Amino acid sequence: MASGEIPEGSVQNVLDQQSLKWVFVGGKGGVGKTTCSSIISILLSRVRSSVLIISTDPAHNLSDAFQQRFTKTPNLVNGFTNLYAMEVDPTVEHEDEVELDGMDGFISDLSNAIPGIDEAMSFGEMLKLVQTMDYSIIVFDTAPTGHTLRLLQFPTTLEKGLGQLMSLKNKFGGMLGQMTRLFGVGDEFGEDAILGRIEGMKDIIQQVNKQFRDPDLTTFVCICIPEFLSLYETERLVQELSKFEIDTHNIIINQVLFDDEVVESKLLNARMKMQQKYLDQFYMLYDDFHITKLPLLPEEVCGVDALKNFSRNFLSAYKPAVTRGTVEELEGRVSTLAQQLKDAEAELEKRKKG
Ligand SMILES: Nc1ncnc2c1ncn2[C@@H]1O[C@H](COP(=O)(O)OP(=O)(O)OP(=O)(O)O)[C@@H](O)[C@H]1O
Ligand SMILES: [Mg+2]
């Protein structure tokens, strides 16, 4: 991009970036992460062979957005042929699975030694699963900020943890075998089986870790609203992402009040002024980002039709109703005139005959 040029205010760049494999969508609670990630996945399904959207929020609300129940395996979204959705919970340990080769006890004891390893492990299992499924692109609807950042650190946590484990194995050799038996792991699932599995995951994790840091493959879309706390949190998010070397160059500012009707409400006028102050700051701070503004609607954005309808604001700047009103008005006037002309012609014809 030439310096001084303002990036386009849409997510078209994300749709155009054909090399992308992972898109993370995150931000503060309630700002519109699920709405935006759902719409981005719908838009991507038009240009990609297959799209998977994953919710990693324990409060799962993809089901609300799409008005369809999803599970922890990919389900086709109603009305689509290539858009799949799944809801996973990285904080829940493999509840209903059989004692994963005796891994659970072992891992949970391990987690005391390496904090976050159990969560990282189930995230790793999920990534491993998803990697083998061959989707063209994967969109993550993440939980509010703090959680997202931890999620992005998982591959690093795992890599470190596994490294530690390997050196432990080398140091203590057979003792680890005794330990695993102590944790209730049978001989047939001895240390080698467990370490083998962890090592197997290590390759995937290292691979994913590298992919998350590759701007050709991964990007993070920040969602926010034009308010102080959200601006502040976005800045924190952007800084953390750069610390983790994760690419981000899209910000979506949701719930913007547009001055498209003569607003007589003092409250709305005051809020619009407040929003403008923060909008200005967003544009100043992130002049190298694609900033997309979304209007606050009078109603929720629920169901595929509403999502599709709202998606147009992701592709081109929202046009306030004033302009739309004017066009509609003009169209109305033109059709009235056309009708009058027709009537006049008919009248003329009648008189000629008569
Ligand atoms: N621009 C908008 N205008 C009106 N309603 C909106 C808009 N954007 C989102 N909503 C509605 O606001 C609610 C919260 O949005 P959403 O679930 O996308 O937020 P979230 O960031 O995912 O929340 P959480 O942090 O709880 O996961 C939803 O009911 C959604 O339909
Ligand atoms: Mg959500």
UniProtKB/TrEMBL annotation:
GO biological process: tail-anchored membrane protein insertion into ER membrane
Domain (ArsA/GET3 Anion-transporting ATPase-like) ranges: 21-313
Top-level taxon in the UniProt lineage: Eukaryota
Main location: cytoplasm
Coiled-coil annotated residue ranges, if any: 327-354
Family matches, as InterPro entries: ArsA/GET3_ATPase-like, ATPase_ArsA/GET3, ATPase_ArsA/GET3_euk, P-loop_NTPase
Transmembrane segments: none
GO cellular component: GET complex
Binding site for ATP: 28-35, 227, 254
Active site: 57
Known function: ATPase required for the post-translational delivery of tail-anchored (TA) proteins to the endoplasmic reticulum. Recognizes and selectively binds the transmembrane domain of TA proteins in the cytosol. This complex then targets to the endoplasmic reticulum by membrane-bound receptors, where the tail-anchored protein is released for insertion. This process is regulated by ATP binding and hydrolysis. ATP binding drives the homodimer towards the closed dimer state, facilitating recognition of newly synthesized TA membrane proteins. ATP hydrolysis is required for insertion.
HAMAP family: Asna1_Get3
Family: Belongs to the arsA ATPase family.
Identification of the protein by name: ArsA/GET3 Anion-transporting ATPase-like domain-containing protein
